[in-house]
Specification:
The structure holds 2 protein chains of 2 kinds.
Chain A: E1 9-12, E2 18-23, E3 35-40, E4 47-50, E5 64-69, E6 72-77, E7 86-93, E8 99-101, E9 105-109
Parallel strand pairs in A: 1-9
Antiparallel strand pairs in A: 2-6, 3-4, 3-7, 5-6, 7-8, 7-9
Chain B: E1 3-7, E2 11-12, E3 18-25, E4 35-41, E5 48-54, E6 59-61, E7 69-74, E8 79-84, E9 93-100, E10 109-110, E11 114-118
Parallel strand pairs in B: 2-11
Antiparallel strand pairs in B: 1-3, 3-8, 4-5, 4-9, 5-6, 7-8, 9-10, 9-11
Classes of the chains: A mainly beta, B mainly beta.
Chain lengths: ~110, ~120
């Protein structure tokens, strides 16, 4: 299984919205509504931000939202804040009953 | 509150076998649907999914590493063990264990990670 494809970096100014894409295949992203997103600050463990494409765990800001179209999932962060600056990883269930992560996207808040 | 903690050697030599233990609390691998997985992250690189074990002892492995990995559980101790054979410097990484809730297809809680360096 190949890693899901994410842009290496995205940036935005405080208050703006950004979207991070995550492209896979019909054997992973496109085949299941089991895409999750994780936020990772430097030196920290990843934190679950979105699960099952568009659901937010308790305690995660509603500024974070997820969606999917075909083989591409997306994470949108609205009202960017300085604390959102981090690496973001998507993950998907696969037809092999395993999971695969994306290559990660570094979000810079300008 | 679910917590997980990884333990094991910080340094292993090439060709050796790595054994990591994940000790967790606040959940149980005797509960239907629960799973515990392992994920690694080389310095400055992306996360890589390694393996997962379910409450019923079903096991899943990364296809690219399947021949080198073994995951086991000790339900009474709330522990999951990952072994990786024939270690190489490219296996240098932070290794995380993470919890998968019943009927979930994601990791809801992660351990802090443990850094493993492979060097002679």
């Amino acid at each position: 299984q190949s890693a899901l494809t994410q842009p290496a970096s995205v940036s935005g100014s405080p208050g703006q919205s950004i979207t991070i894409s995550c492209t896979g295949t019909s054997s992973d992203v496109g085949g299941y509504n089991y895409v999750s997103w994780y936020q990772q600050h430097p030196g920290k463990a990843p934190k679950l931000m979105i699960y099952d494409v568009s659901n937010r765990p308790s305690g995660v800001s509603n500024r974070f939202s997820g969606s999917k179209s075909g083989n591409t999932a997306s994470l949108t962060i609205s009202g960017l804040q300085a604390e959102d600056e981090a690496d973001y990883y998507c993950s998907s269930y696969t037809s092999s009953s395993t999971q695969v992560f994306g290559g990660g996207t570094k979000l810079t808040v300008l | 509150q679910i917590t997980l903690k990884e333990s094991g050697p910080t340094l292993v030599k090439p060709t050796q076998t790595l054994t990591l233990t994940c000790t967790f609390s606040g959940s149980s691998l005797s509960t239907s649907g629960v799973g515990v997985g392992w994920i690694r992250q080389p310095p400055g690189k992306a996360l890589e999914w390694l393996a997962l074990i379910y409450w019923d002892d079903d096991k899943r492995y990364s296809p690219s590493l399947k021949s080198r990995l073994t995951i086991t559980k000790d339900t009474s101790k709330n522990q999951v063990v990952l072994t990786m054979t024939n270690m190489d410097p490219v296996d240098t990484a932070t290794y995380y264990c993470a919890h998968r809730a019943a009927v979930a297809v994601y990791f809801d809680i992660w351990g802090q990670g443990t850094m493993v360096t492979v060097s002679s």
